[in-house]
Design brief:
Helices cover about 40% and strands about 15% of the residues. With about 325 residues, it is of the alpha/beta class. A five-stranded parallel β-sheet has the order 4-5-6-3-7, sandwiched between helices. The longest helix has 20 residues. About 40% of the residues are buried.
Length: about 325
Amino acid sequence: MIDLTARQPPPDPQGLLAGLAPSARFEHVRFGTYRPNPEYPSQDEARASLQAFLKGAQVRPGGFRLFRRAKPEGRGLYLDGGFGVGKTHLLASTYFEADGERAVMSFQDLMYLIGALGMTGAVNAFQGHDLLLIDEFELDDPGNTHMANTFLGQLMPAGTSVVATSNTEPGALGQGRFNAGDFQRQIQGIADRFETHRIDGPDYRQRGTAPADVLDAAEFEHWQARQPLDTLALVTHRDLNRHLLAIHPSRFAQLLDGVGAVGVTELVPMSDQNVALRFVHFIDKLYDLGLPAALTGLPLGKLFNDTYRHGAYAKKYSRCLSRVSEMVREARG
């Protein structure tokens, strides 16, 4: 059995750079496997817009460069929509459909790389890329607002195109999280680099099903018995939260390296938002990696403080609960 709390993955920006491809859950998705909700035409329109975006590529020596005939500067496409409408599916599909040098990463991973490599180092690392795909683009503070604006401002004019997904439209980035009005020029500078497509619709994970809740003791025991013992990680929620505070979310993939399944027991309320957001990022990584997971303890509806669930990070918490519900449903079989 694996003890997650005994693991202290070191910073590894070069390792992160080498692995910027769709995660296990999305490695087999394609545009043809996307199932848009027929009641929301914007979903099919988003797929069509990405396919049209990619058709602008032209051959050049050594690979492809997007939109070189139209203009030398890279173009931007921004998918704005709630959780569970397939934005990450579409982003991964774009990666697999595109030619040339490309990379896909979360916005948080990008911020980590800029911090670890420095702005010049990060720009140099991606300046030869034809396409950069950024998932969950969000501005949480003035620091990453400045870094994002500077990074895109140096990278895109040199010819790298960018596709981003977010739960927030570009012009509203940062609202409710810091005094975004003081940084409106930088936020607008980011927004102006993208053509925005809104994707509407409900959470596909809940189509035709009731939200699942945590496992009871007997269900958890049955789930645990089905997992290979040598790659199973079991941890109490309190111990997990304490450990995650010491590890940057960009290293959560390293934390879970070699893990085949994760059981989190004795869920408790999280009254500290720093703790809650780390847990959200951990669930995101579990979900992206496609790892089987089971949880016991507090009902999911009581996990996060109501002020958090209706505050600036409301969509993050709602997405987390949706993903946990799906993982629990899968654990029940």
